[in-house]
């Protein structure tokens, strides 16, 4: 992993797209979810790019791997949270499919780096 150019990593770029999509999809969640599910989902989505960035700046390969694993775990948590949101009808089936495809792409990219 190129420590100087983490912004050139496909996973970092896709992670940013994931954050943007997440913010769009959670914008219309009920107000009572603002401090609960909305906040959790947004934190989890941003965690992916944050951990890619953090991992890319580490000197030891094992430290880099640790942050890649954290990014991967964040993706699984995010996927679960969107399942909850879909179950509560906070997002449509179509929107769930769109976000789920983006999460799957990011999971594949993280796995590829690991």
Summarize it.
This protein is mainly alpha-helical and 114 residues long.
Structure characterization notes:
The protein has 114 residues and is an all-alpha fold. The chain contains four helices and no strands. The longest helix has 27 residues, at 61-87. The chain is elongated, with a radius of gyration of 14 Å. The termini are close together.
SSE string, helix = H, strand = E? Answer: HHHH
Portion in strands: under 5%
> Tell me about the biggest sheet?
none
Based on Cα principal axes, name the global outline. Answer: elongated
Instruction: Report the count of strand segments.
Output: 0
Total number of helices: 4
Helix/strand structural class = mainly alpha
Seen as an oligomer or otherwise, the chain set is single chain
The gyration radius over C-alpha positions equals 14 Å
Helix percent band = over 70%
Average pLDDT confidence is: 93
List low-confidence stretches: none
Rounded to the nearest angstrom, the distance between the terminal CA atoms is 10 Å
């Amino acid at each position: 992993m190129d420590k100087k150019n983490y912004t050139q990593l496909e996973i970092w770029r896709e992670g940013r797209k994931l954050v943007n999509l997440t913010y769009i999809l959670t914008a219309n969640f009920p107000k009572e979810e603002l401090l609960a599910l909305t906040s959790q989902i947004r934190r989890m989505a941003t965690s992916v790019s944050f951990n890619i960035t953090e991992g890319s700046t580490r000197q030891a390969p094992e430290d880099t791997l640790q942050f890649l694993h954290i990014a991967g775990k964040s993706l699984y948590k995010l996927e679960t949270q969107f399942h909850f949101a879909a179950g509560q009808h906070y997002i449509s089936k179509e929107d769930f499919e769109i976000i789920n495809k983006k999460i799957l792409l990011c999971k594949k990219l993280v796995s590829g780096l690991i």
